[in-house]
Amino acid sequence: MPSYLGLQTKGGQTMVFVPGFGTDQNAWHKIVPAFADAYRIVLLDHLGSGATDSSALALCHYLNLQPYADVLAHLDVSGTVLVGHSM
To answer: How far apart are CA 7 and CA 41, in angstroms?
Structure first.
């Protein structure tokens, strides 16, 4: 499962940030404050990067979206705004 950092903020709707290949959730830290008053923020790391197990790295994981859906289900997220780059 990808690692995540869920930031409870003032907003009700969730905004999920997914980093591009070779980066982790830290790529978003300068952008997140602009949305923190309006959204519940969730930052994800891809398998094999950031706080996840680096041995899980495989290029094919970018084609498998189920782990990300599992994180969102675990957080009881529906109707989210998804933000990503280099995807």
So the answer is: 5
Looking at the domain assignment, is residue 87 inside a domain?
A: no
Higher pLDDT, 77 or 45: 77
Residue 43 forms part of a structural domain: yes
pLDDT in the model for residue 43: 84
Task: State which H helix or E strand residue 5 sits in.
Answer: strand 4-7
Query: 50-54 long-range contacts, Cβ below 8 Å, gap at least 24?
Result: 50/3, 50/19, 50/24, 50/25, 50/26, 51/3, 51/24, 51/25, 52/2, 52/3
Indicate the number of domains in the chain. Answer: 1
